[in-house]
Amino acid sequence: MTKKFLIGLATLILAGCNTGDTDGQRPPPTPVEVVQVTSAPATLWGDFTGRVAAPETVALRARVSGYIDKVAFTEGELVKRGDLLFQIDPRPYRTRERAAQAALARAQSQLALSESRAQRARQLLASHAISREDHDQRQAAQESARAAVNAAQAALESAQLDLQFTQVRSPIDGRVGRAEITRGNLASADQTLLTTLVSVDPMYVYFESDQVSFAGNRGFFTPEQRPQVHVGLAGEDGFPHLGKLDFVDNRLNSHTGTIQFRAVVANPEGHLKPGQFARVQMPTEQLDNALLLNRKAVLTDQDRRYVYVVNAQNITERRDVETGPQQRGMILIREGLEPGEQVVVNGLQKILFPGMPVVPQPVQKRVEATTPQLAGR
Question: pTM of the predicted model, to two decimals?
């Protein structure tokens, strides 16, 4: 046992000596890829949830009472303004129109007779062959006959309108819904709902913005400028629909602290339908000198974000940063960095501790063709 113990002790002593020799040899600096922090103009974009609505929505009702003779459309189809949708039985209204025409003819005949008698009365009064009273009575009869003609003309026009209203036509271009009433049923004037119509192109997208975003984007919305927005629907990748902001409400909602916006979106293919939820990107802020950095360079330590900066002596330094929105692989640095500093973007796993020497290798950044657009806040 004593011999084995001595052999083991000697082995440990030799191993300790070998370890000391290895520690004396420092490894060479680690090569890492770095990018230079630059500043450039950037537009900040906010993400919002909205709902699609039709600019024109019509609940079509009968304007005269009667039985439905015909439903003249296919449910769900596109219709043009003026297309016939329902036909109400016109026969009672044709009869009323003829009666009104007859009443007008009778009133016109009475007017012609009254005008002739009034003309003779004026001639007789000039030769003192008629009393003033008889003359005035004939003049009054003429005016009464003229008023009767006007009333008969109005009654005829009303009868013609009622006859015209038996043909229920589309008041807008759009898509018609289902028929709420079918042939043979009685439609009551101004009460019975026949169908609904909605316009389809363009469409509105309503969404709410918080006070911070509203304060930032007030410069985007002026009478001369209407900013563009990007819209995406559920199941779509990204924001394929382009719209233009055309309305901002005149007050904030005191309960939610938000203000309502509206965008107009072209819809020639009919992909947008009223009632759909939509995702909206809207510009919220314009920065003249934004610090942009590849988001792979930003690390997270609990609730803090940091990067590794390489100084002039090629020594790494940990730097806490405050970040902003990100998009297209770039992230906005609000605080913590200055233009021109070098930040490690590739090889971060090789940095074991701050203060470690490295060999920085610059990476050529990909330049975007357009001004960076950063989503979110």
Answer: 0.69
User: Given this model, what pLDDT does residue 55 score?
Assistant: 94
Whole-angstrom Cα distance, residue 249 to residue 280? 17
CATH number, domain 91-165, options 3.30.310.50, 1.10.287.70, 3.90.380.10, 1.10.287.470 = 1.10.287.470
- Within the chain, where are the H helices? 2-23, 91-126, 132-165, 211-217
The answer to whether 238 and 232 have CB atoms below 8 angstroms apart is yes
**Mean pLDDT for the chain overall:** 83
Of 170, 169, 165, give the one whose Cα is nearest residue 189: 165
CATH architecture group of domain 30-42+288-375? Beta Barrel (2.40)
Residue 123 one-letter amino acid:
Q
Alpha carbons 268 and 41: distance in angstroms, whole number: 34
Cα distance between residue 55 and residue 273, in whole Å: 11
% helix, strand, coil for the chain, step of 5: 30, 40, 35
d(CA 257, CA 213): 11
The full set of domain ranges for the chain reads: 30-42+288-375, 57-89+166-198, 91-165
Is 127 a residue whose pLDDT tops 50? yes
Condensed to tens digits (0 to 9), the pLDDT of residues 172-230 reads 999 999 999 999 999 999 999 999 999 999 999 999 987 766 665 666 666 667 788 89
Q: What are the residues whose beta carbons fall under 8 Å from the beta carbon of 157, sequence distance 6 or more?
A: none
φ, ψ of residue 348 in degrees (nearest 5): -60, -30
The b/e string for 241-258 (b: 16+ C-beta within 10 A; e otherwise) is bebebeeeeeebeeeeeb
pLDDT at 212: 66
79-88, 149-158, 343-352: least confident range: 343-352
Contact status, residue 76 vs residue 176, Cβ threshold 8 Å: yes
Residues β-bridged to residue 334? none
Say how far apart CA 316 and CA 140 lie, in whole Å.
Answer: 110
β-pair type (203-210, 258-265): antiparallel
**CATH number for region 57-89+166-198:** 2.40.50.100
